[in-house]
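User: What would this chain look like folded?
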Amino acid sequence: MLLYIHGFRSTENSTKAVQLKRHFAGEILIARFSHEPEKAIEVLENLIEEHEITGMIASSLGGFYATYLAQKYQLKALLINPSTRPYETLRRYLGENETHDGEMFVWGESHLLALAQYAVEKPTAKHYAIFLKKGDTILDYTVAKRYYDGGEITTEEGGDHRFADFEKHLDGVETFFEPKLCNRN
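Assistant: Here's the prediction, encoded as structure tokens.
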């Protein structure tokens, strides 16, 4: 079973989540979790332990969480424009925020401090496949490229932080997780 972890201000109803749900049918769990880092990690750890998760797909802030969890549980993770230092890059969002579903929440300094405790100094490269868009205006793709050096890195021209054409990569996602992907025929 795979686990999808969405990014900051996103939800389990995001475009990528819907695409993954459609492509992987009953073989993917789409996480719903709090914007508070400690609560998010607690929920994600419980899902991994309770559902025999064999790999994760994650985007942006979800990629940061997935990196921590991949190291802890020795899982493979496919990351889409992952955040490597959200305790720095999410500072610009201090205050009120709204998810794409319209849910309001407050992002504070305490959240940034909480994120820092989940930082991984040097990820184990063999665990990761990374999809990066050079046109990402939210995160500098070169930071992730250096951080995950040695992993399977796909860097594409143009695009955006959302990685809008992600759906065309779904077969590659499946290939990355084989043979660990459960019950694929």
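The radius of gyration is 15 Å. If you want, I can go into more detail on any region.
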